[in-house]
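To close the section, here is one more complete example, presented without commentary so you can practise reading it yourself. The ligand is magnesium ion.
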Amino acid sequence: KFEDFEVLFSSEELQSRVAELGREIARDMRDSENVVVVCVLKGAVVFMADLIRHLPMNVTCDFLRLSSYHGGTTSRGNVRFDFDLTQPIAGKDVLIVEDIVDTGLSMSFLLKSLEARNPRTLKICTLLHKPARQKRDVPISYLGFTIPDRFVIGYGLDLEGKYRNLDYIAALK
Ligand code: IMP
Ligand code: MG
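Output:
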């Protein structure tokens, strides 16, 4: 229920932070001829759609989906590709766009997997980071906001598939 949530970041706050991230990324990658923006579905789709409109250089976009099974009470994440990129990334400047780094298991798996394909550079841009629950050290090149250990929804993030369409981010009370 909506009453159980409180707004953490308004639409305006998100839009201005995303624009700043876009400027940072543009400054660093402006001269690259081969930027591939990789959206990690489904959560990052809203963030990615806004972010790429703040990038002035030519980019191509690709998509992948991971599925994770965080087994029982152990800390071992079992992450795999649900579906993969449609193009090779060797020699390309790859920017992974993610909604949230929580335990870090997904991004640590993805970095390892994509690194093996020999991109020229490989960086992570995540809107949110929840350091309290982190189990793997993940190098984050571009970060929107650090958040406390709370479950968040909106702006792409879901609860049981819902609330991705909210233009703000809210936390469970
Ligand atoms: P992890 O870093 O491997 O633990 O997984 C991160 C993924 O878990 C994200 O891509 C989200 O899909 C999901 N996730 C983690 N925390 C939240 C949250 O607070 N709200 C919604 N999804 C979350
Ligand atoms: Mg995700």
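Once you have examined the tokens, check your reading against these statements. Strands lie at 5-9, 35-41, 59-70, 77-83, 93-101, 121-129, 142-146, 152-153, 169-172. The chain is about 20% helix and 35% strand.
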